[in-house]
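Async update (no meeting this week)

Hi team, since we skipped the sync, here's where things stand on the single-chain job. The sequence we agreed to prioritize is pasted below, unchanged from the tracker. I ran it this morning and attached the output directly underneath so nobody has to dig for it. Comments welcome in thread, and please keep replies under the output.
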Amino acid sequence: MTVINKKDFIDSIADALQFIACYHPKDFIQAMSAAYEKEQSAAAKDAIAQILINSRMCAEDKRPICQDTGIVNVFIKVGMSVQWDSDQSLEDMVNEGVRRAYTHPDNILRASIVSDPIGSRQNTKDNTPAVIYSEVVLGDKVEIHIAAKGAGSENKAKFTVLNPTDNLVDWILETIPKMGAGWCPPGMIGIGVGGTAEKAMLMAKESLMAPIDIQALIERGPVTAAEKLRIELYDKINQLGIGAQGLGGLTTVLDVKVSDYPTHAASLPVALIPNCAATRHCHFQLDGSGPAEFTPPALSDWPDITWQAAANTRHINLDTVTAEEVKTWLPGDTLLLTGHLLTGRDAAHKKIADLFATQQPLPDSLDFHGRFIYYVGPVDPVKQEIVGPAGPTTATRMDKFTDIMLGQAGLLGMIGKAERGPEAIAAIKKHRSVSLIAVGGSAYLVSKAIKSARIVAFEELGMEAIREFYVENMPVTVAVDSLGQSVHESGPKEWRQRIADISFNKPHS
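Output:
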């Protein structure tokens, strides 16, 4: 009989979470490298390059791939012959491992979990609790799949119940473009079909734990209906031309996973969950011989890529930039930003809106007039860092505050990731402003452009406090210009047309 020791289990959970925060799986690195080599869109190729460079930097320095270090998902299979040497429940042991991982002094991971989600939404400070699924199976081992799922991709989860005669592929191809780019493509898409509503969602989530193997499947040929569906969706989703970061390009998904389960004759539940470019998961077993060990990819597994600004990149001084200068920027233009900018995201925007609504002044330390705001909640710094990984959060969540921030607050422009919705675009056009994007999935790379950081307001919000950064040569792309033209509309439209004539992306027979 196998005896699993409490310490071994907790240490394995903590070590796994620290490991996946810093290291992409080798299969992901290989798939992204192949996408980089194939990509013909300059904007998408640049974005993939930044993601791969960021990935290697994180592996070298053992720092988080993304500032959103995720909500922890754990799938545990406990063998029926296993005995536990523990005075804690399975759930408590998992959460103790999470707590230790996210508060590790040498590599602090951002705590993003809030309790009382429909009330006070107070940060739990240690990223607990995890979301845990367990089952008892035959055997004498404990098998664990663990993932840290960022909100940018998790927020794009979709579910529907189709009629049995409805076209599943049509629903997915209609749904993917509506998800926008907040899930940081290219990544994976998990599909769960059948069972009940919760079973379909669970299958979609768990399928994302599997290795990227679509090319091997294409090479050997599909056998099952699920395998045929995987290949069809892989081709057709990439034919949408969404591309890296939604800028338009050849690769939107690196793989599509499909899991199915028997369902009611009158029903076809379908769940869709994406995984972002910060793919973080691993699988290990405990057999009673000690804690799990994790081996990082070799540095030679990353492609030899260097990043440099394109020849036509504009250098922008944030401390002297004017509204007239902003009006000359066009969608897709690449910029290098130097100077001071403010940060802020959901909670800070809500506090500002509430102050304006009650005719109260902003804090004396806070003046947005003529300035740019960066939508970010950084990881805490360690050692000599100015700031920890500090990649952009999804700009779309701030859409409802955009008119207030550009009008009453006096902002000149904004920096985030992904597209802006109609409400924000209307406000940008009205105020002749601009929305810029940094590459989601390049958080550590971006942090190297930040040369100073200080909190200027709402310190009680923790990672959501408003900070002032001084940046040097921070790379961004113009997403929406002062006339309301969006690269997230023009880019995919252009590449959807181009892809139609590229034979290697046509459906397989």
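Quick observations from my side:
Residues 42-61 form the longest helix (20 residues).
The chain is about 30% helix and 25% strand.
Reply here if anything looks off.
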